[in-house]
Amino acid sequence: MARIPYPDPDLLPSEDRALRDALPPLNIFRMLSGSGASFAPFMALINAYLNSGLLDAELRELVILRVGHLCGSVYEQHQHRRVSRMLGMSDARIDAASGALPASVFSEAENAVLAFTDDQVANVKADPRLFADAHRALGDAAMQELVIIIGIYLLVCRYLETFEIELEEKDIETSGLDEIRRSMKGNG
């Protein structure tokens, strides 16, 4: 059970209630809807990299899975394992996102990005060699997006764990990326 009650949708401002209603019925979105003025902009930020992001979708999900693993967030890992399967990612690649690096199921570029992710999560400012390896694989703009995504999911994991947001009673297979993208059109 979450540490604080999920917000009553009837008590939310109309624009927050409309956004919440447009999103998949995931507990994280239910709780976030009560975060006041940060709810809509936060969802717009997520929408930006889902709709217009530079990182390959599988690489993005590997990074998110890695951050979830490093933070010990069961909810985050569960949801993004599901998203990764929806993208067609193999179970071997999904499982390897929580394993030792380098992993043979990842390309050299993916291993470099995930090693950078590990170091940034652990040390904030990643080692220059790891930065250079990831930067070489991604370039300037995608490297910036990578750091932003790592930061977002560090925040999300801390949010999930601090409020002890539980998994939904039944897995919601229909609440994939396309549904989130559709719900955010015009809200960002």
Oligomer: single chain
Question: What is the radius of gyration computed over CA atoms, rounded to a whole number of angstroms?
Answer: 17 Å
| Contiguous helical run count | 10
Tell how many strands the DSSP assignment holds. 0
Largest β sheet strand count, sense and barrel closure? none
Mean of the pLDDT scores? 92
Structure, explained:
It is a single chain. The chain has 188 residues and is mainly α. 64% of the residues lie in helices and 0% in strands. It contains 10 helices and no strands. α4 packs parallel to α9 (140-162).
Which helices and strands appear, and what pairs or packs with what?
Blueprint: H1 14-22, H2 27-32, H3 39-52, H4 57-71, H5 74-86, H6 91-96, H7 108-123, H8 128-138, H9 140-162, H10 177-184
Highlighted features:
0% strand, 188 residues, single chain, 64% helix
In short:
The protein has 188 residues and is an all-alpha fold.
